[in-house]
Amino acid sequence: MSKRKSVFVFAKAQVSAFTGGLLDYGVMIFCTELLHIHYTISIAIGGIIGAVLNFSVNRYWTFNANQANHSPVGFQLVKFIFVVAGSIALKSSGTWLVTNGLHIDYKISRIMVDIIVSLGFNYVLQKYWVFRKQPTKELHQTDF
User: What pTM does this model have?
Assistant: First the structure.
């Protein structure tokens, strides 16, 4: 993949993450502030809702992973669920640690943790594991 295309895919992934993140963050605030659910649980609820949007956008727009040279949607979805579970665990525990360790409001801690998890965990696993292209088998003379 060319450097220009890699930058373009990275930018699209960040737009997707930001869009899903806004939904996720909004749900977290709603659940915590209005429904009085602990913020670590609200992060999980928001993460699941944001993940639905993020999976769809990434599959069809960011990585074009609905093409024949990608895994079937079921395989992608199973892998994505593992990534989301890890992401939610990292975001919930990281937000709790930063909030309690540094005595920062959970809303700010969440943003700090989100940036790290989104770039260092979610993007890498989605690009190179969940939505990666399948290698094409080349025919060699010995295959005949």
Answer: 0.85
